[in-house]
Amino acid sequence: xxxxxxxxxxxxxxxxxxxxxxxxxxxxxxxxxxxxxxxxxxxxxxxxxxxxxxxxxxxxxxxxxxxxxxxxxxxxxxxxx
Amino acid sequence: xxxxxxxxxxxxxxxxxxxxxxxxxxxxxxxxxxxxxxxxxxxxxxxxxxxxxxxxxxxxxxxxxxxxxxxxxxxxxxxxxxxxxxxxxxxxxxxxxxxxxxxxxxxxxxxxxxxxxxxxxxxxxxxxxxxxxxxxxxxxxxxxxxxxxxxxxxxxxxxxxxxxxxxxxxxxxxxxxxxxxxxxxxxxxxxxxxxxxxxxxxxxxxxxxxxxxxxxxxxxxxxxxxxxxxxxxxxxxxxxxxxxxxxxxxxx
Lengths: 81, 252
Hints:
- With about 80 residues, chain A is an all-alpha fold.
- In chain A, about 80% of the residues lie in helices and about 0% in strands.
- Chain A has helices at about 1-30, 35-60, 70-80.
- In chain A, α1 (about 1-30) packs antiparallel against α2 (about 35-60).
- Chain A is elongated, with a radius of gyration of 19 Å.
- Chain B has three domains: about 15-20 and about 90-175, Pleckstrin-homology domain (PH domain)/Phosphotyrosine-binding domain (PTB) (PH-domain like); about 25-85; about 190-225, no CATH class.
- In chain B, the strands form two sheets. A four-stranded antiparallel sheet of chain B has the order 1-2-3-4.
């Protein structure tokens, strides 16, 4: 399960770098008097919120167990359906 | 007239007469798609909550949380890209040119320019219920000359007014440049009328070959007449009507 967490953190790292570059590009494209700065601020706030929320939820979960626990999966499936 | 400073290299001195984006209603499909994409995981989560509640108490919850986080981050970026495409997809008419700037994602931009003087025909298309209701549609501009190009400016507000404005500006520029009677030949250049008011047309390849300028004179017989309908095809390129009636391969 820890592999999944590392993969997510790597994704997050690449995603943040990509977004920083995208925001710099968009900032350079701005037109005088446009509303880009408002949208960029809103975008960054939403991204920060989603990333923070996901990290908060992730921090409350148990990541020490195995990723492929087939027996558990089957038992959950039997109980649920 | 609106003043708008849009920095395109080589256009700093031009006065912007018209500046527009696509009509906001053209985004309706994208907005509905984004709402749908945002709601899918919520609906999926509600179904799981009622049908397979044990998942939320298992290790699968970790996977669900990670997938949901990645999914929403991607969707938020997708929404941002759609907005960038809309906001920076602009259409500008300056006092000399029509500039169509197409934003292709965050990292792509395509700029088409055509001189207003080269515009030959402009038409407006309003098709469909929403475009009719909200008065938006396409403006189709065709440039003159052999390398004629068609420019389609999509989903702009007031397309009729814009098409009319382009043609008015074209006519004004033609009148201002005193080129009302000139003909734009395939590769020819434009020249002002002669002193006696007679229009002139110049053929660039004629000038290159002979060094002389051909005078445009529609009633005059051509200097190198094409062979008549009954004359035999005695040279390459000239085909008589008789030979054409026979069919088959025509030798040029």
